[in-house]
């Protein structure tokens, strides 16, 4: 079901957004029957509450949506979205009460409240239609909603239906939609073309590993997005326990996020030369699985000692990042569900990122708030470099001790991007429990902040 705004028309009902504590002020100018109806209700403007107001003939003529207090709104990404699923069926337009600065965020949240993952069972929420609020670029918000829905669908799909082959198909579908070019290196071709670590990680799986390379645009600055596409992660020979393996269908969340972001960039027609690189693999157990203590060569020439086969995401990203930099783009951004350490540090809601330049961090931080896509900068802490240097090889994929795991992973990746401005996102890409505008399950984390930062970063 497309997430779109309703067409404006005479049939839409007015929706008044009421902040808690402001109900009496709103009632002062209302007709007697409205004042009497509200007085007989328990509506106070509390966040998430709604009240349908009948006309004199009993047919609903308007509705109120509680907007709560500033403190209550601070706890929700999309405060008004709670009303979308509680209102009577029909179409509404915002008649009063919505702060101008919140209109775009709340409009997006309303559309996202209509998302449901229905591939296996219809889970489409019953959401009232909304006419795009005045001053909102409706087409742009619909693109953002579609991009988020794409990301969620990809992450929510289990590995049986979203392995490397299906992930490639999803990328091809997106390329066909926007007229992008796509090239894929598969199986033994990865070795022939010097992607040894992507091949090593994925060679034990039933579906061959691959590197997906999509390109779009002929003018403007060059932007390369690299997304981790580990379609399922058993941990390899360092097998995960059952409790840690349960959500590993989402280990391709980095690729899902960059594909969603790529859709937004292309649909909005940004003046960039976009490239998307996705190493798509499954980290499986078989007789030819890579082993602890193996030393792998990388595309960049650096050797890597394998001290944990469950730290595989950085390996496939490393080859892709080295390949990305060979084309000398203006900016490289990688996205990956990379470390549990990032979740320990920031939990599931904040997207941690690393940046090689302060200007990149500043642009991302400035864009995150208006995009309702919170991010938090983490440090490339140079004194920890020695932790990823095992001595027997150039790099260690899993430093002992378990400290600073997200930082050491980011430092590892930075060894493969040495000349190009670079940002890395260590995301969770999963909503643990439902919230307004955010269904339980797959989630985009970081793409809207990145999209909002691109004009500053690439002089668009």
From TrEMBL:
GO terms for biological process: proteolysis. It comes from the Bacteria. Pfam families: Peptidase_M17, Peptidase_M17_N_1. GO terms for cellular component: cytoplasm. Residues 308-315 form the Cytosol aminopeptidase domain. The keyword Transmembrane does not apply. InterPro entries: Leucine_aapep/pepB (IPR011356), Macro_dom-like (IPR043472), Peptidase_M17_C (IPR000819), Peptidase_M17_N_1 (IPR048816). Keywords: Aminopeptidase, Hydrolase, Manganese, Protease. GO terms for molecular function: manganese ion binding; metalloaminopeptidase activity. SUPFAM superfamilies: Macro domain-like, Zn-dependent exopeptidases. Signal peptide: none annotated. The keyword Protease applies. Belongs to the peptidase M17 family. PANTHER family: LEUCINE AMINOPEPTIDASE-RELATED, PEPTIDASE B. This is Leucyl aminopeptidase.
């Amino acid at each position: 079901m497309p997430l779109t705004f309703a067409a404006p028309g005479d049939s839409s009902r007015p929706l008044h957004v009421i902040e808690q504590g402001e109900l009496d002020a709103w009632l002062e100018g209302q007709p007697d029957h409205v004042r009497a109806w509200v007085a007989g209700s328990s509506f106070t403007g509390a966040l998430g509450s709604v009240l349908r107001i009948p006309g004199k003939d009993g047919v609903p003529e308007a509705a109120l949506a509680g907007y709560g207090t500033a403190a209550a709104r601070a706890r929700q990404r999309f405060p008004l979205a709670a009303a979308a699923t509680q209102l009577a069926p029909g179409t509404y337009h915002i008649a009063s009460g919505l702060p101008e600065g919140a209109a775009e965020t709340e409009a997006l949240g309303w559309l996202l409240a209509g998302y449901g993952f229905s591939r296996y069972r219809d889970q489409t929420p019953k959401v009232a239609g909304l006419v795009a609020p005045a001053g909102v670029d409706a087409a742009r918000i619909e693109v953002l909603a579609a991009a988020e829905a794409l990301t969620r669908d990809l992450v929510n799909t289990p590995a049986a239906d979203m392995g490397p082959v299906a992930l490639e198909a999803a990328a091809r579908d997106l390329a066909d939609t926007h007229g992008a070019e796509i090239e894929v290196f598969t199986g033994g071709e990865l070795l022939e073309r010097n992607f040894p670590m992507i091949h090593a990680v994925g060679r034990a799986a039933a579906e061959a590993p691959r590197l997906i390379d999509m390109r779009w645009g002929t003018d403007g600055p060059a932007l390369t997005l690299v997304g981790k596409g580990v379609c399922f992660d058993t941990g390899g020979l360092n097998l995960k326990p059952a409790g840690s393996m349960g959500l590993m269908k989402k280990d391709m969340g980095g690729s899902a996020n960059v594909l969603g972001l790529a859709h937004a960039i292309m649909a909005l027609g940004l003046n960039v030369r976009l490239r998307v690189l996705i190493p798509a693999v499954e980290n499986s157990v078989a007789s030819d699985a890579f082993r602890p203590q193996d030393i792998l060569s990388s595309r960049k020439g650096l050797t890597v000692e394998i001290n944990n086969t469950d730290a595989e995401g950085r390996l496939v990203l490393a080859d892709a990042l080295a390949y990305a930099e060979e084309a000398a783009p203006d900016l490289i951004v990688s996205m990956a569900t990379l470390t549990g350490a990032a979740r320990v540090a920031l939990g599931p809601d904040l997207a941690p990122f690393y940046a090689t330049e302060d200007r990149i961090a500043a642009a991302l931080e400035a864009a995150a708030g208006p995009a309702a896509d919170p991010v938090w900068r983490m440090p490339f802490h140079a004194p920890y470099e020695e932790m990823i240097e095992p001595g027997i090889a150039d790099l260690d994929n899993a430093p002992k001790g378990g400290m600073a795991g997200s930082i050491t992973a980011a430092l590892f990746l930075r060894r493969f991007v040495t000349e190009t401005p670079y940002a890395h996102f260590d995301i969770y890409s999963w909503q643990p429990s439902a919230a307004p505008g955010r269904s339980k399950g797959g989630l985009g984390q970081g793409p809207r902040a990145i999209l909002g930062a691109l004009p500053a970063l690439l002089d668009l």
